[in-house]
Design goal:
single chain, alpha+beta, Rossmann fold, Elongation Factor Tu (Ef-tu), domain 3, six-stranded antiparallel barrel, 35% helix
Amino acid sequence: MRNVIVGTAGHVDHGKTCLIKALTGIDADRLKEEKQRGITIELGFADMQAPDGTDIGIIDVPGHEKFIRNMLAGIGGIDLVLLVVAADEGVMPQTVEHLDIMRLLNIRRGILVITKADMVDDDWMDMVESDVRDAVKGTFLENAPCLCVSSQTGEGIEELRQLIFAEVAKVGEKNNNPALLRIPMDRVFTIQGFGTVVTGTLTQGMIRTGDEVTIYPEGLNAKVRGLQVHGKSVDAAYAGQRTAVNLTGVKKEDIARGNVLAAKDSLTPSSMIDVKLQVLGDSKRTVLNGSRLHLHYGSAQVLCKAVLLDKDALDPGESGYAQLRTEEPVVLKQGDPFVVRYYSPVETVGGGIVLNPNAPKHKMGDAAVVKALSVRESGDDSAQMEQILRDESKTFPAAETLAKQLGLTAEEGLQQLQSLALQGKAVSIADGIYVHQDYVNYIKDAAFAILDAYYAKNPLLAAMPREELRSKLGGAVKVTDTRSLDRVLQYLGETGVLALTPSTAGKQGYSVQFTKAQLRLIDELVKLYKQAGCESPDPDEAFAGRKDKEECKRLVAALCADGRLIRVSGKFCLDSEFLKQTIAWIRETIQTNGSITLAELRDHLNTSRKYALMILEYCDNAKITRLQDDRRVFY
């Protein structure tokens, strides 16, 4: 079943609520004060069903300028607007402001409705219709159908109803993926015996009884106890429906209008958002760098400061990139529309779309930031994902995290990243974790600089300790996530950029140019260690009295770097082939007997306890074995 939201807009006392009652039989004014004063103060709701089964939810918004905040809380999720103008008054200030707001919120479909047709003659009606057409010229309503009606006599009501059905049929299908669930909350109350209830327009996704959800920006987890759509209990509600949600796990006092009910862990609160900001052409205000504004999004309103990124000021009719720094956390997605009103006097000055809902702090005039935002604004889906990946690579983001920023499901985000990887623009460094290829190159260049400096100080070594490289690299690229950084190093090793062993790292293809004298000495050292077997010589003793003692030590380090020797403990090294064979025997023994003892290895090697223990502790450190009681088992 399709679900569509229709909303009203227009000046106070132009007959919006009466029109809804004439169309549906439902009085959307529910407050005692509204009935006493004869004006709509809060959002009102009604519904009807199209002949094709489409479920139409209707939102009645207040028209008085004092209640624009309430109007903004309900208008954001609508698919079709009825712009209502009274025949006896014509276009009025709130008609224009509501029209501006709808344009800023990217509403694209509507009907012009001239009410109170019974109160004027035909000539006057022609003038009013001309007035309305002039007012909407150049907007999404310029070519919208226009009907004259009377809620009192019923004139034109049936025609309007049929026109609504026809326009509703043109509204596209919505995404009902439960991972995208979002309900900006416009009412919060309690019902005795049931507890906390919230209502709002389900703008994305779907919700079911029993679902676990999160309320943002507080991050409160709750469970769905029950659901209602248009006063009827349902097991599930879908995008495009006015929905009441009975929650367990939260109290009414802990949540409020403006909060967002969403799929669990699907949003990330932020106090800085990057936007494309448009100032209305008829605005009386100029938005300056640092201007304080009221930000309206969904059903929420927060105060913010506008930091302009590419201009010193935005005059009426101008647009530009800006960072809105909010005084309390907000929860938005890329592409969400918003409205801003001047701090004082409070009047609508502009709005736009969100480009980065979780932005770092920017400085004005940063060309790289402006370029990135232009891609986020106008690039295709792939270009936008690539830009987000480029911006976020330093955090080693999961595919799910990147998908959140674009308002995609984790699966959709992963598909885009896999496509970028096939194009050579993204690199998977772990399951579901991607970075941009440019960031990998940045880390590679930093690693090469560190290795070059190491080679300059250690001309006989082709590799440096891997842990030392990772530590220095973290400082150079300002990364504290050593696990992810090591994953990038591993990728560079797997792709042939770095030569890696579990303990060393060097440039692939780099080799030390030894002198003939050094090569003769290396042959001597290799022979010494092969003959020593498990009984590693102590360099201080083995090289004592030799004039080339320090050269021997340097060459032992070089042999460890190129893998012919392996340092098992401090200054003690073993021939790599001997150690490899010994470890193979240890593995085979544990595989056969379930464990191995120090004595068994000592007897096998026909050596002392000291050397057998040294090898077993090396295996422990390499996570081949572990000590269990007095025996070694597989790690």
